[in-house]
Each structure stands twice: as structure tokens, then as C-alpha cells.
Amino acid sequence: MEGVTTLRNLSDARHILQEADKAASIVIIGGGILGLETAGALSNHSNKKVTLLESFKWLMPRQLNQTAAELLKSYIEGIGIDLKTGVFVQDLVGDERVAGVHLKSGETILADLVIITAGVRSNSYLARLTGLQANHGVIVND
Q: Cα separation of 73 and 25, whole Å?
């Protein structure tokens, strides 16, 4: 769908800046380092509405405890970024071009540009079914 992109290299960054100039509202999916930096850069680059979505209850849960994440949240909101945590994207709205992001809660956030910065999580279900020990992946020894 046009207006949906990822950020992996310099070419992507240039494309995002071109798209951001045309967009009225921008949604970034993923509240990790890449998502935070992208939201901050786009908020600073233009006077566009920037919304950052994170599925965990707070930002950067693997790096920050909830208290530290609340301080970061205050800063993010203070620079004009709309932050939504504990939300799950159900699907993208639009035909040929994105028009918004539909959340599992039923809320739809309008967006002319959607940037996906979400990482990946391992699915250890199959490993656990076979009896292997798993935590955030299969546990191995030396």
C-alpha cells in the first residue's frame, strides 16, 4: 500500500522525508530506539501530527523499567508526539494509499504515512512443544 514503509537504510530515510513533506499525519509503529528516533526526527522536521504506537505497556521494556519509561513518555509527549502504549495494530486502512491504522481496540488513527519500525520477537512455541527449554529463544549450552 502506498504510504507504508519501513526504515532500514539511507534510501528509506530519504523516501520517508519526501513522503513526510506531503503527509498531514504520520503514524510510527514500534516504540523502540528506531521508532523513537524516527518520531523525534519527523516531529522536529515538520509541523506534522506524529503518533507513536507501542504494543508493550511502556516504552523500551527490555531497556527501561516502568519508572524510567514514564520519564521518557513525558519527554516524548512534551515535544508534541502523541504516544499510545499497550495498543495492537489490527490492520491498515485504505485502498491503494494508506488512510489510517486500525487498532484492535476499535480505534482508528488517521495517517497519510505509516512507518513500521517494530522489531521481531521469537516464537518459541514449537521448541517448547518438543521439550526444549526456551525463554526468549531456545536455551543452549556452550
A: 20
Torsion angle, CA of 28/74/85/38, rounded to 10 degrees?
20
Under 8 Å between Cβ of 32 and 117: yes
Is residue 39 within 8 Å of 62, Cβ to Cβ? no
Radius of gyration of the chain (CA): 17
pLDDT tens digits for range 43-88:
987 778 999 999 999 999 888 999 999 999 999 999 999 999 999 9
Domain 4-129: CATH superfamily, name plus number: FAD/NAD(P)-binding domain (3.50.50.60)
pLDDT at 111: 97
